[in-house]
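Hi support team,

I've been running sequence recovery on a batch of backbones for a student project. Most finish fine, but this one hangs at about 90% for roughly twenty minutes before it completes. I'm not sure whether the input is malformed or the queue is just slow. I've pasted the structure tokens below so you can try to reproduce it. Let me know if you need the job ID as well.

Thanks,
M.K.
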């Protein structure tokens, strides 16, 4: 799954592409773009179903579109964008980068041959450490403005959807700022920066066309 800053990089590019054609509150749209990850039950907030792609759990985009694709509601539209990126992150990127060997409980990086047990891979020490690597590059390239993060509310709004409204205990802003403060040196051993950003740009451009047509 993409990091908060990756989702906000997508949000920034989409916002810039739709703001002249759609009256939309930027900060509320950004809130929507991080909202699904703040839920306690990610299965509900991500509309997860077993997909035809490697039998992995991915958002059911037909239902997501019906419930969240609302050009008059910046929070819901942002949440739609979040789930659209999640879907394509796995389908267009992660499955090409990694081998998800369920039989042997391993995840293997195709490019460098590094492998981990599945539980180890999805831990702060491995996969989530790559977020800290990419965060600095995202900020350095001005794909996300820290001032926008500071403007976003610490307590995200309720939207009347149980899947989104039952939240994790840890505050999202504390978490993302702690990742940023780590300033971890980039290695690219897990997620590579350029392919990750290229994916975000491509997905953002698709979303701009869908939203403005």
């Amino acid at each position: 799954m993409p990091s908060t800053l990756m989702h906000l990089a997508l949000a920034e590019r989409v916002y810039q592409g739709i703001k002249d054609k759609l009256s939309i509150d930027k900060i509320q749209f950004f809130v929507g773009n991080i909202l699904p990850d703040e839920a306690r039950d990610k299965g509900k907030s991500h509309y997860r179903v077993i997909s035809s792609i490697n039998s992995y759990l991915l958002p059911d985009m037909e239902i997501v579109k019906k419930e969240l694709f609302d050009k008059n509601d910046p929070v819901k539209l942002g949440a739609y964008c979040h789930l659209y990126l999640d879907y394509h992150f796995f389908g267009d990127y992660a499955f090409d980068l990694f081998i998800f060997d369920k039989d042997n409980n391993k995840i293997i990086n195709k490019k460098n041959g590094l492998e981990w047990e599945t539980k180890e891979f999805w831990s702060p020490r491995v996969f989530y450490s790559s977020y800290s690597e990419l965060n600095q590059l995202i900020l350095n390239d001005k794909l996300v403005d820290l001032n926008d993060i500071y403007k976003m509310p610490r307590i995200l709004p309720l939207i009347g959807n149980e899947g989104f409204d039952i939240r994790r205990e840890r505050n999202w802003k504390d978490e993302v700022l702690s990742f940023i403060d780590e300033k971890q040196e980039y290695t690219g051993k897990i997620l590579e920066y350029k392919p990750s950003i290229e994916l975000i740009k491509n997905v953002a451009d698709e979303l701009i066309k869908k939203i403005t047509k």
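--
Follow-up from support: It reproduced on our side and the slowdown came from queue contention, not your input. Strands lie at 48-50, 57-59, 98-101, 106-109, 115-117. No action needed from you.
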